[in-house]
């Protein structure tokens, strides 16, 4: 080829990376690999083959972990945990720092191994995955260094079971292991069956870094090994993978008092407005959907392009696609590598071939034989089309058009997922207007697929819950130092229903800002501590739950009210309660048969003031990320929260649960104390006179055991909290798997509602989601 031809075609040759060192490592340490357990590689057991997807060649044999192997690893992690936590944050920081340095020193070996086994282009593993892994350990060495001073009152969960997928084998390992170790946990990690090698190499890095034996254990195997790990005696589960498996894990961990974070699938919108820099947006798409062959949970896999520019944009995009190079992952000059495994390839094929809608454009570039799939664009699909809704997890982009920004938001949010979004417009006003309106955990403005250890990553809706990265990522690896004492089931007082009522008030439910009769038309007699009838409490049923949820959904304007405004309303509720303090105190004393009523009312007023105070002080932070830009960690309300209120402090408990939730912009469906429901039905009179918009706080009375499962299963409820003295944790967590709603349950433990635990900052965390918004920034 002449120089002139090169300039004309811009074609360039291959630049293959040598696999020699990686193959030598496999041959030397393997080629039959056992688990890395208790600080050493174990003998291989029953094995399966792992292959290079680009060539089909067998690379190594990997042990299929049994339940006994998992048990041994958990035992090693358990034995090592107190010592590791006992080292203190600064001691742990030294080891994490050493790991970061070692990852850097062996970065090329890691990169080649990762590309050999996973099929991703070496350019990506070398320039993105491995540097991000090192960055993650450096950042978390820092978080460990500061741990003891910054996290008073919190401690490590204990032993973490961590399960990672095959698309970013080492990066997902780092996202899981670094924060776990920084907080003082020990771990058992199971890599995905198609990509175990870099995790096994990482075991040796831990040994070289002087990590004490048993702190990190790598158990290899398939989904069965993963399920055994979930079932084992661990304290926290962290999972990244498919939504289906995430749901199974939610069910399998229900009621076990475990910490759980799930990072699941996505169908992330990539929105191009007509005033975008189209060439940049096309280049961004190359990263969004062809990075790692589209096998990326946050891939910009749904292109939404404004109608007026759609034709021009698609033309530019097709021209760019045709220039992509697909081929040997170890060739530094290719753009798209191999699909991880023939099984994944056939999933992609089945999805694309199974549709008869739309027009398909396949990149004109040369596609090698074997486990490769051409970069593909499908246009002209309807919103309901399977390809528009389902995660394809391959190099396939689907596209649709929109007319106005608000239509773009509506289409973007028409999905069960909520992981990420990219917005492209030269008008930053448009982007900043749209970013808060998209249901997603991460939003990139004029960019895509940016990640950093200092910025949280994770989803909403069926993309899972919990964040990885940033302080919120570390949070997931800590639990409160004091967990609270066992809570005894509170029983309602009994008496003779025929006695005359001393207070004749018809208590109702409170739905949508109005008093509502219960759908079933039933009420329960409520007695005071001496057995005298004091009223009738409505018995709410599933229909009442549905009405209350509908009212709460309708009150979405509350999320958009200013924090100042929300604070004013909560202060006003406090004032109005204070004005009737004596009456409430007397009624509480009568209900509960004590003399604590005055203190309960006073504390409830104070609590309202506390959460009103917080309303405008928990908006978020700016995160220092190593790009020419910045990341905003915005605290957004979760949405509609169903909360089962404490039985033992009927007024204070309800207020303590309601106030932080609404202070952060959520709407709530509160199920009142079961034995003492009348405190709540009195309280709605206070709400009625306090300018709280109808539907923001809804109050139901009735059986916790009957109402909680309905709330937990409701698809329009985003989170369920339970502080009930009825043991509901398992039931709530199991049913919450339906739409993967967040849960916060007491696992049978009480809380001192009168003390600091009653206004724990944890309420703020549970009442909000972090949305990370990456914005261009000149500094
Ligand atoms: P998967 O969710 O089955 O696998 C992820 C990890 O979970 C692997 O380590 C696997 O061994 C483990 N696992 C499987 N079943 C388990 C169980 N019952 N209990 C505990 N662990 C279990 O994902 P798979 O089959 O590899 O891919 C299927 C689809 O999932 C893909 O086509 C893609 O759509 C999606 N996916 C999404 C990922 C993401 O990052 N969001 C990552 C991987 C896959």
Automatic annotation (TrEMBL):
Residues 44-479, 529-745 form the Aldehyde dehydrogenase domain. Signal peptide: none annotated. This is Aldehyde dehydrogenase. The active site is at residue 263. The keyword Cell membrane does not apply. It holds the Pfam family Aldedh. InterPro entries: Ald_DH/histidinol_DH (IPR016161), Ald_DH_C (IPR016163), Ald_DH_CS_GLU (IPR029510), Ald_DH_N (IPR016162), Aldehyde_DH (IPR011408), Aldehyde_DH_dom (IPR015590). Belongs to the aldehyde dehydrogenase family. Keywords: Oxidoreductase. The keyword Oxidoreductase applies. One of its GO terms (molecular function) is oxidoreductase activity, acting on the aldehyde or oxo group of donors, NAD or NADP as acceptor.
């Amino acid at each position: 080829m002449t120089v002139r031809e090169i300039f004309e075609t811009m074609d360039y040759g291959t630049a293959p990376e040598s696999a020699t060192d990686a193959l030598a490592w496999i041959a030397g340490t393997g080629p039959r690999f056992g688990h890395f357990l208790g600080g050493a590689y174990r003998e291989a057991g029953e094995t399966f083959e792992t292959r290079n997807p680009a060539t089909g060649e067998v690379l190594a044999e990997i042990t299929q972990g049994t339940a006994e192997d998992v048990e041994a690893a958990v035992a090693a992690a358990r034995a090592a945990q107190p010592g590791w936590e006992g080292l203190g944050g600064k001691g742990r920081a030294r080891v994490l720092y050493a790991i970061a340095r070692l990852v850097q020193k062996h970065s090329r070996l890691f990169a080649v191994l990762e590309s050999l086994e996973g099929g991703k282009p070496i350019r990506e593993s070398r320039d993105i995955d491995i540097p991000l892994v090192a960055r993650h350990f450096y950042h978390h060495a820092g978080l460990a260094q500061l741990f003891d001073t910054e996290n008073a009152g919190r401690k490590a969960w204990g032993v973490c079971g961590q399960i990672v997928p095959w698309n970013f084998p080492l990066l997902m390992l780092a996202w899981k292991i670094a924060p776990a170790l920084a907080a003082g946990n020990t771990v058992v990690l199971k890599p995905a069956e198609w990509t175990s090698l870099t995790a096994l190499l990482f075991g040796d890095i831990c040994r070289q870094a002087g990590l004490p034996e048993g702190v990190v254990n790598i158990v290899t195997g398939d989904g069965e090994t993963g399920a055994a790990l979930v079932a084992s005696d661990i304290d926290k589960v962290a999972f990244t993978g498919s939504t289906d498996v995430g749901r199974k894990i939610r069910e399998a961990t229900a009621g076990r008092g475990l910490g759980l974070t799930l990072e699941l699938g996505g169908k992330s919108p990539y929105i191009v407005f007509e005033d975008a820099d189209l060439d940049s947006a096309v280049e961004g798409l190359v990263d969004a959907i062809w990075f790692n062959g589209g096998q990326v949970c946050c891939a910009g896999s749904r292109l939404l392009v404004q109608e007026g520019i759609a034709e021009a944009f698609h033309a530019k995009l097709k021209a760019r696609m045709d220039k992509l190079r697909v081929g040997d992952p170890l060739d530094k000059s290719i753009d798209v590598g191999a699909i991880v495994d023939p099984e994944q390839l056939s999933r992609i094929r089945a999805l694309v071939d199974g549709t008869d809608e739309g027009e398909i454009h396949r990149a004109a570039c040369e596609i090698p034989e074997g486990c490769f799939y051409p970069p593909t664009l499908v246009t002209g699909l309807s919103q309901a089309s399977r390809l528009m809704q389902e995660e394809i997890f391959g190099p396939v982009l689907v596209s649709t058009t929109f007319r106005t920004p608000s239509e773009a938001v509506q289409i973007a949010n028409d999905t069960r997922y909520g992981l990420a979004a990219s917005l492209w417009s030269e008008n930053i006003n448009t982007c900043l207007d749209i970013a808060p309106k998209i249901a997603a955990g991460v939003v990139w403005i004029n960019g895509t697929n940016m990640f950093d250890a200092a910025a949280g990553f994770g989803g909403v809706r069926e993309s899972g819950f919990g964040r990885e990265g940033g302080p919120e990522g570390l949070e997931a690896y800590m639990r409160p130092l004091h967990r609270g004492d066992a809570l005894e089931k509170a029983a309602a007082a009994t008496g003779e229903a025929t006695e005359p009522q001393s207070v004749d008030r018809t208590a109702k439910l409170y739905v949508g800002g109005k008093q509502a009769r219960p759908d079933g038309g039933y009420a329960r007699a409520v007695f005071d501590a001496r057995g005298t009838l004091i009223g009738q409490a409505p018995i709410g049923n599933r229909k009442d739950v549905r009405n209350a949820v509908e009212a709460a959904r309708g009150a979405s304007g509350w999320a958009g009210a200013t924090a100042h405004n929300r604070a004013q309303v909560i202060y006003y509720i406090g004032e109005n309660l204070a004005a009737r303090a004596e009456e409430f105190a007397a009624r509480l004393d009568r209900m509960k048969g004590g003399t604590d009523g005055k203190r309960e009312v006073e504390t409830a007023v104070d609590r309202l003031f506390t959460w009103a105070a917080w309303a405008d002080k928990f908006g978020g932070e700016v995160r220092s990320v190593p790009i020419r830009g910045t990341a905003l960690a915005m605290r957004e309300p979760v949405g509609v929260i169903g909360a089962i209120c404490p039985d033992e402090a009927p007024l204070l408990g309800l207020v303590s649960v309601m106030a932080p939730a609404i202070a952060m912009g959520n709407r709530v469906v509160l199920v009142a104390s079961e034995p003492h429901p009348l405190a709540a039905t009195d309280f709605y009179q206070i709400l009625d006179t306090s300018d709280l918009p109808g539907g923001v706080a809804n109050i139901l009375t009735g059986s916790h055991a009957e109402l909680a499962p309905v709330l937990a299963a409701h698809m329009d409820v985003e989170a369920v909290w339970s502080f009930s003295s009825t043991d509901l944790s398992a039931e709530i967590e199991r049913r919450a798997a339906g739409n993967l709603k967040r849960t916060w349950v007491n696992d049978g433990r009480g809380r001192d509602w009168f003390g600091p635990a009653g206004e724990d900052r944890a309420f703020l965390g549970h009442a909000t989601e972090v949305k990370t918004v990456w914005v261009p920034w000149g500094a």
